[in-house]
Amino acid sequence: MPIASKVQEVKQELAQLAQNATSAHDLMLGMVKLLQERMLKYNWVGFYMLETPPGEQPLLVLGAFQGAMTPHTRIPLHQGICGAAASSGKTVVVDDVSKDPRYLACSLETKSEIVVPVFVKGKVAGELDIDSHFPAAFKDEDRELVEYCATLVGKTLERTQQAK
Ligand code: SME
Q1: Edge to edge, what strands does the sheet with 74-76 contain?
Q2: Closest C-alpha residue for ligand 1 atom 3
Q3: What is the DSSP pairing of strand 123-132 with strand 74-76?
Q4: CA of 132 to the centre of ligand 1 (A)
Q5: Segment 103-139, tens digit of pLDDT
């Protein structure tokens, strides 16, 4: 199946998931599972959420994920590709992680990575991080798909936080 059609199909499944989700956490759990199952080059898929522990600097804390356990469960904003995406509020795509000095290794098999911030009311609230065992796995269509996921989660967080 051409990648563009696959992305359209998966987007519809994600929209359905968002409609049925009872909470943002529920949506994130379903989303990481669906992405890892349906997108064959997405080998590790996980959310990091921004938290500010009392008396500490904000940091990224591992949330829902699919794939092997990572040593990076808490990432300061000045570290890693994850820190770069959260602190800049911009999507970061790395075609070859071995050439990026910011990269924090999760698995020796990882070759490329995409990290997309999740916004709530215009502010970064977390991010969706995906690693691939294939170099340059994340093309324009993938970026569009992952940004779509981040938007769905941001909107669900906004809706459920408002309801509180
Ligand atoms: N590679 C990330 C760390 C998270 S693991 O990939 C799951 C980074 O460089 O920030």
Answers
A1: 74-76, 59-66, 44-51, 123-132, 112-120, 92-94
A2: 104
A3: unpaired
A4: 11
A5: 999 899 999 999 999 999 999 999 999 999 999 999 9
The answer to whether 113 and 129 have CB atoms below 8 angstroms apart is yes
pLDDT in tens, 148-157: 999 999 999 9
Here the tokens at position 125 are: 């609230």
Pocket lining: 63 vs ligand 1, CB cutoff 6 Å: no
Mean pLDDT of all residues in 19-36: 97
162: CB partners within 8 A, 6+ apart: none
pLDDT given at position 6: 94
CA 21/CA 77 separation, integer angstroms? 29
The answer to whether residues 119 and 89 touch, using CB atoms and an 8 Å cutoff, is: yes
